[in-house]
Specification:
Distance between the termini: 85 Å
CATH topology of the largest domain: Beta-galactosidase, Chain A, domain 5
CATH class of the largest domain: Mainly Beta
Helix content: 10-25%
Radius of gyration: 30 Å
Strand content: 35-45%
Mean pLDDT: 93
Low-confidence stretches: 14-29
Length: 753
């Protein structure tokens, strides 16, 4: 071996040793922490979104102090108020009139006065009633005006008010006193003295206007588990209309298929051995149906989504900007999430997008189940949107926002971290193509979406409300249902109304229907409604005239009046339905946004039902009406407890007015039928239990606006696909070679119950 060869081998050996040392030194070293860049400053609206901002706790407190000082009536804190007292039931934002807002946003007009809507229960009056006041201007109120008659055509009768927590406490105390009259029966049937049984309300409360008589269902309760799966077969009917709690009465008792006049009668039949008793052992925590405790220790963590350089969206107060989107968000304590002034690329597309109501209607052969029609807005869809669990309800690195409300108390409450905002990589391309014809190339764009999410827990059910904003200019609205099913005690022909899911538990069939308001302003306020669908025409082939072709063609139609634009639930609807502008795009078509509904709704209540008008929005999968300031919502919180004379009946909105070149509103119903089954225990999964709708650009642009996305990828056979400058995917090993900044896990959701 000559000297030159030996030197080459020595250099190679040293280089190898150096490389191995580097590997050994860096092995196990944690990657550097991701360095977040400031988000793009697209927010130039200069506080205009504050015209829609939810009230602050300070503003709510100011309204309470003003009313206490200026009404000239004794007011009791609602958390302590008896039915015979006066109290402030709630305080929320009074959304200004649209014309005022647009003059401010678009015309340089004055900012509308900031006002609150206060709901008061007047029980200490000769004619008890519910009254609504507009109070302003905020932050220092100086006036109030009664708007009840203006809104509803008359005073709101007192029996229509939602049941308060204080009222439920008094009802529970009454039930406990009555249960003490059947001690031996309770010991035999339930291994209980009644004090450890959970009590669940039903609604509505009777059969005609003025009734306030409610069935309550009793369950075994094991702390830390869902009692909803453990009915004991006992249900009681309580009349609680009288303003004096001492006059409330238990009117009927139901047990295992039989009805009794009182708990004393139930006890007497038990002692006389004329009552068939199903003996239930008190469930244990380790064996109860409703336990969600993990059955196995934690495993390795699953995939984690993170932003290597920080969020690409910007949140300032109640305003979000993201890749051309501008969104103003808020929360109504009754009806839930609401959005205003949604713009894409500087143009307003939606003036208002808001949830209106969620209906859950049950069937059963037990009285509580068969009479239940929950209208969740009267309970509080927004109020009961609690803190979200970081890393499970939303991504760990999402932005979390507090929401404030004032209801059933003179003191504002805060649901911290109860709304989240995040960018979501759906792991599917928004669009792509691989070319193997004529030339070789690949073009694509990943489907990244901005998601705004909140989750409402309405006793047993959890509704996940998603509002998504896509790079294509589309808005997607979805609701996922999870949580616990509501159940009845299995007896008789119970399986005609559901499936057996436990030893004595019937998972009762029910439907979920949700209603949304969509005030689209497509290239301006004045729009018309256009439908498109397909038909076949049979023609001779024009090149020989010897054969026939079934040729599809496009049938276009403009709908002129509201009656034409009210599409019954579960009936065929045009596949393409669009809000259109008189202005054309580059290719001569009206600039439009299409409404695409994804729903598997159950059947609506029969029209001849005495309570159908209270949920008459459910007649239609889609209805388009002229926008009116006096028709702000399709329902009312007062409809739950008097559905027989509804305070707001949506059917009255549809009166065949013209809808051509008018300011229009789309009212969208989505839902599904749920027949509970074994896999709904312990919890209903969200898979397959999701419905919603899309707002999609349809000739609104001259081409897909996502072509301008910086996330676009183009690869060709003539380029070096590994070059970072030409292919952003090639940059990821460097730009994403860092550990995400994860804040410490915290959860305080149990503090404000």
């Amino acid at each position: 071996m000559n000297v030159k060869t030996a030197l080459v081998l020595l250099v190679l050996a040293l280089a190898t040793i150096f490389a191995l040392v580097c590997v050994l030194l860096t092995r196990g070293r944690a990657p550097s922490t991701c360095q977040h860049l400031p988000p793009e400053q697209e927010d130039t609206e200069d506080g205009q979104s504050l015209v829609f901002a939810d009230l602050t706790p300070e503003e709510m407190a100011q309204v309470v102090r003003y009313l206490q000082a200026n009404l000239g009536l004794p007011l009791v804190d609602a958390s302590r108020a008896k039915p015979s007292d006066n109290c402030i039931a709630s305080v929320d934002l009074q959304v200004p009139a649209k014309a005022e807002v647009l003059r401010f946003l678009d015309g340089g007009g004055a900012r509308p006065a900031r006002e609150a809507l206060a709901v008061l229960y007047f029980g200490n009056q000769p004619e008890p009633n519910v009254t609504e006041y507009v109070v302003g201007p905020l932050p220092t109120p100086a006036y109030h005006r009664d708007v009840t008659v203006q809104k509803y055509g008359g005073k709101v009768p007192y029996h229509r008010r939602p049941v308060t927590g204080k009222e439920y406490m008094a009802i529970n105390a009454l039930i406990q006193r009555e249960l003490k009259k059947a001690p031996q029966f309770l010991t035999m049937c339930c291994e209980s003295d009644g004090t450890d049984l959970a009590i669940l309300t039903t609604a509505p409360r009777g059969f005609e206007s003025g009734d306030r008589t409610t069935w309550f269902v009793l369950f075994h309760h094991v702390p830390g588990t869902g009692y909803y799966l453990s009915p004991v077969g006992l249900e009681v009917l309580v009349e609680h209309r009288d303003l004096q709690v001492s006059r409330w009465q238990l009117r009927k008792v139901f047990y295992n298929g039989r009805y009794f006049a009182s708990t004393e009668d139930l006890e007497q039949e038990f002692l006389a051995r004329t009552l068939e008793v199903v003996r239930l052992k008190k469930p244990q925590a380790d064996a109860v149906l409703g336990s969600m405790r993990p059955r196995h220790p934690p495993d390795s963590p699953g995939p984690l989504q993170f932003e290597p350089q920080g969020p690409r969206y910007n949140v300032r107060g109640n305003h979000i900007t993201y890749q051309g989107w501008s969104i103003t968000f808020g929360m109504n304590p009754n009806s839930g999430p609401r959005f205003f002034d949604i713009r894409y690329r500087g143009e307003r597309i939606v003036y208002e997008l808001s949830l209106q109501e969620a209906l859950a209607l049950y069937g059963s052969n037990c009285p509580g189940g068969m009479s239940t029609r929950y209208l969740d807005g009267s309970f509080g869809i927004g109020r009961f949107a609690y803190e979200l669990v970081r890393g499970l309800d939303c991504p760990f690195t999402a932005t979390y926002v507090d929401r404030h409300y004032l209801a059933e108390s003179d003191t504002p409450k805060t649901n911290q971290n109860s709304l989240c905002i995040f960018e979501h990589d759906s792991a599917v391309p928004l669009r792509r193509h691989f070319s193997d014809s004529q030339s070789s190339y690949y073009g694509g764009l990943r489907k990244s979406t901005l998601v705004v999410r909140t989750i409402s827990t309405l006793v047993n059910y959890d509704y996940i409300w998603d509002f998504m904003f896509h790079g294509s200019g589309a808005v997607e609205v979805h609701v996922h249902a999870t949580g616990y099913i509501s159940t009845s005690f299995l007896h008789g022909q119970g399986t005609n109304y559901g499936n057996r899911v436990g030893p004595h538990t019937l998972g009762t069939m029910h439907l979920h229907h949700m209603h949304y308001k969509v005030d689209l302003d497509v290239d301006g306020q004045l729009n018309f409604l256009e439908t498109q669908d397909m038909e076949y025409e049979i023609i001779k082939d024009p090149w020989s005239m010897q054969n026939t072709i079934e040729r599809p063609y496009l049938r276009r139609e403009r709908l002129e009046r509201e009656d034409e634009a009210a599409f019954p639930l579960n009936a065929p609807m045009p596949r393409y339905l669009s809000f259109a502008s008189p202005n054309p795009n580059k290719w001569g078509h009206p600039r439009s946004y299409r409404i695409q509904v994804i729903s598997f709704a159950g059947k609506h209540l029969p029209i001849n039902s005495s309570m159908e008008r209270s949920v008459s929005w459910g007649r239609y999968q889609l209805a388009v009406t002229r926008r009116k300031e006096e028709e702000p919502s399709s329902t009312s919180i007062y409809n739950q407890n008097d559905p027989w004379t509804p305070t707001v009946a949506f059917a009255d909105f549809i009166n065949n007015e013209t809808i051509t070149n008018e300011d229009l509103v789309a009212w969208v119903s989505v839902g599904f039928l749920h027949v509970p089954h074994a896999e709904d225990v312990p919890n209903t999964v969200a898979v397959g239990n999701s419905v919603g709708f899309f707002l999609r650009p349809y000739n609104y642009f001259d081409e897909d606006p996502s072509v301008d996305s910086p996330d676009s990828v183009y690869l060709s056979s003539e380029q070096d696909t590994r070059a970072c400058g030409a292919n952003p995917l090639a940059c990821l090993p460097t730009t994403a070679a860092c550990a995400p900044r994860l804040p410490p896990f915290q959860f305080g959701g149990f503090l404000n119950l």
